[in-house]
Amino acid sequence: MTKKATNPTDSLKIPQFIIVSSKVCAFISTKLVTSYVAKLFTTPIKHKIPKREFDMDQKSIQKTIYVPSIDKNIATYEYGKSEQKILLVHGWSGRGTQLFKIADELIKNGYSTVSFDAPAHGKSSGKSTIMSEFIASILEIEKQFGPFDFAIGHSLGGMSVLNAIKDGFQVNKAIVIGSGDIVQDILDDFIAKLGLKPEISERLRERFEEKYQVKMNDFSAYIAAQEVKIPVLVIHDNNDPEVPVKAGIHIHENLKNGTLYLTEGLGHRKILGNQNVIKKILDFIKSN
User: Which GO molecular-function terms appear in the entry (predicted)?
Assistant: First the structure.
């Protein structure tokens, strides 16, 4: 039996049983459904490393490091031996080897990469996490492995890179691919996919703000972008079903020194392995 071809613009579907469970919780009480969706929102899916990533996984030097500010351990990957280091940051439910095609080309061009499994991702411990822990991980990795010349982030990793730069992470240039933008939009989209009322999204934001003592909107990428002075390349697909292209355009509009590169038909993940995208990244890194 032949496998059905996957459309790169297909969005990841939320399993039907989760949608049904959410609606049952909502029927019982607003408090219950808010608690349930908060757990869903902060629990990534740990995928097995696919065969295509085995080479990077086997050839990298792997260490577990401690991130004091969040009291968590994360797995790190050092790939290549050049003094010119590039930090790679995966997105939600990703892993440190996910940007392997980009990493391979960087190494061929004389760079080395450091990547990591964010808390509750890949080989790192834990079951739940939020973006602030991605940011804390970046800042700790800079202390232990830096300095870095460049940083590349995908999806939530792109948001995290911009926020880390706002918080003092030092790089010469950054690249964000398929990055999310406004936190409330992300919460709204998540609640809509579960088929729940919009008011649950507001309650979810309030719950996170109370628990973590932060303003969720402060983590929106466009706000961080306003404080980023270095050159930033924003890459986004026009047909990205998970993070609308308006996110990338809005981030670019708020950068002081931004370049926007839009692709067609690559969706949210296939974009990471596209040769034209990788060439654009290399050209941007090498340009004066």
Answer: hydrolase activity
- The residue among 261, 248, 258 whose CA lies nearest residue 228 is 258
Ranges of the chain with pLDDT below 50: 1-11
* β-pairing verdict for 258-263 and 232-237: parallel
pTM for the predicted model, two decimal places: 0.92
Helix, strand, coil percent content, the chain, rounded in steps of 5:
45, 15, 40
Question: Which contacts of 73-76 are long-range, i.e. CB under 8 A and separated by 24 or more positions?
Answer: 73/124, 73/125, 74/116, 74/117, 74/118, 74/119, 74/124, 74/137, 75/116, 75/117, 75/122, 75/123, 75/124, 76/114, 76/115, 76/116, 76/141, 76/145
Give 259: exposed, middle or buried? Use CB within 10 Å, 0-12, 13-18, 19+: middle
Cα separation of 9 and 208, whole Å?
30
Architecture of domain 47-181+220-286: 3-Layer(aba) Sandwich (3.40)
Among candidate residues 212, 129, 141, the one with its CA nearest the CA of residue 171? 141
Nearest to 119 by CA among 164, 65, 60: 65
H runs (alpha helix) in the chain = 16-28, 30-41, 54-59, 100-108, 131-145, 156-166, 183-193, 198-212, 221-225, 245-253, 275-286
| Number of alpha carbons in the 13 Å side-chain half-sphere of residue 144 | 20
Residue 12: predicted pLDDT? 60
